Amino acid sequence: MEISEFEKSKVFTIVDILEYAVHSVVSKAIIKKITGNISIAAFNAGEAQTAKVSPFDTFILIIDGIAEIVINNSSNTLKTGQSIIIPAHAHNTIKANEQFKMLSGFIKSGYE
Predict the structure, then answer these.
(1) CB 44 within 8 A of CB 68
(2) What is the mean pLDDT of residues 4-31?
(3) For 25-107, CATH number?
(4) 31 and 38 in contact (C-beta within 8 Å)?
(5) Rounded to whole angstroms, how far apart are CA atoms 75 and 67?
(6) For residues 108 and 57, is the Cβ–Cβ distance under 8 A?
(7) Is the pLDDT of residue 40 over 80?
(8) Where are the domains of the chain?
(9) I need a labelling partner for 92 at 20 to 30 A (CA). Which of 15, 104, 105, 106 fits?
(10) pTM for this model (two decimals)
């Protein structure tokens, strides 16, 4: 199911927005504002997000599969339905030991 623009007040199934792609991480913004973002990503097995540090707390919800979220060298395994908040300024990496999909978001307000 490919959605190029999300229509407000219309129901959609979040897990069906992206398909897994071979040797890839696919992502799509659901809401993108100057005050924060909500996005979805599909990680194929063996893929990882480059280690990074964000100036904002980041909420992660696993909506399919199992993910490894490493925060300041501490590994966390999250299954479908589980969430974690990556603290602002924490070193973090997101790894796909098997394929998974996640919803992530952050709000910039309060960090001025």
Answers:
(1) no
(2) 90
(3) 2.60.120.10
(4) yes
(5) 10
(6) no
(7) yes
(8) 25-107
(9) 15
(10) 0.90
> How far is residue 17's CA from residue 15's CA, in Å, rounded to a whole number?
6
User: Residue 2 above 90 pLDDT?
Assistant: no
What is the spatial distance between Cα 32 and Cα 20, in angstroms, rounded to a whole number? 22
CA distances from 60 to 1, 7, 9, 66, 77 (A): 22, 23, 24, 12, 12
Q: Is the pLDDT of residue 23 over 70?
A: yes
The pLDDT tens digits of the residues spanning 48-66 come to 999 999 999 999 999 999 9
Please determine, for residue 67, whether its predicted confidence score (pLDDT) is greater than 80. yes
The letter for the amino acid at 2 is E
Residue 108, strand partner residues: none
Whose CA is closest to 33, among 105, 81, 94? 105
- One DSSP character per residue, 9-55 reads T----GGGS----TT-EEEEEEEEETTEEEEEEEEPTT-BPPPEE-S
Q: 77-98, pLDDT tens digit by residue?
A: 999 999 999 999 999 999 999 9
